[in-house]
Design brief:
By secondary structure, the protein is α+β, with helices and mostly antiparallel strands. The protein has one domain: NADH Oxidase (3-Layer(aba) Sandwich), CATH 3.40.109.10. It has helices at 3-9, 25-36, 56-71, 77-89, 109-129, 139-143, 145-151, 180-183, 193-196, and strands at 18-19, 47-52, 92-99, 133-137, 157-168. Strands 1, 2, 3, 4 and 5 form a five-stranded antiparallel beta sheet that branches.
Length: 198
């Protein structure tokens, strides 16, 4: 798939619309080559990824369900079951972890988070370009101390994304996107270069 086509056609596909098969090991490695090619000031590599497959998906689902119950004791059984089932719906869950050094003398925390987010976006594009689909989720599990502890994350690590990955079983409509004119302007004139010539 050509680059611009991959960028413009990528969709977020929820776990209920995903299923097997997942990627083979060679393709999986290629995806993480793409993630590692993200812009990264100082080459700190402030990110890592945990891959959850097979029986480990059930354990992850139990962890997510427990985190929801701790955060919201009034959560319905259906909500808890959805959290528990989501990892089991897909062949692969990728947990994107940002490794932040808040005391770094040169690279501010925001740039480290930006590098980790860029790595995730590269990964999502690689997934899509390979014919697979994914959803980048956060929610209660991403911010839960219980989940962080259960995953063995360090003090300066944050769960930046839960990526549900698989083969799309149904098409997903394109979400609305902003028009280029709404997000890009010349400075200081405020014109639109491709329309106003500058």
């Amino acid at each position: 798939m050509e680059l611009m086509e991959a960028v413009l056609t990528r969709r977020t596909v929820p776990p209920v619309k995903l299923g097997p098969p997942g990627p083979d090991p060679a393709l999986l490695r290629r995806w993480f080559e793409a993630a590692g090619a993200a812009p990264d000031h100082g080459r700190l590599v402030p990110f890592r990824f945990l891959l959850v497959q097979g029986e480990a998906r059930s354990r992850l689902g139990e962890l997510f369900s427990r985190a929801l119950l701790e955060a919201r004791p009034d959560a319905s059984p259906e909500e808890r079951e959805k959290q528990r089932r989501n990892p089991e719906r897909v062949p692969l869950v990728i947990l994107a972890v940002a490794r932040i050094d808040p005391a770094h003398p040169k690279i501010p925390e925001i740039e480290q988070i930006a590098a980790a987010a860029a790595a995730i976006q590269n990964l999502l594009l690689a997934v899509h370009a390979s014919g697979f689909a994914a959803k980048w989720a956060t929610g209660t599990p991403a911010y839960s101390a219980t989940v962080r502890k259960g995953l063995g994350l360090g003090e300066q690590e944050r769960l930046l994304g839960i990526l549900y990955v698989g083969t799309a079983r149904a098409s997903q409509p394109a979400p609305p996107k902003p028009e280029p004119e709404a997000i890009a302007r010349s400075w200081p004139e405020g014109g639109v270069p491709w329309r106003d010539g500058g």
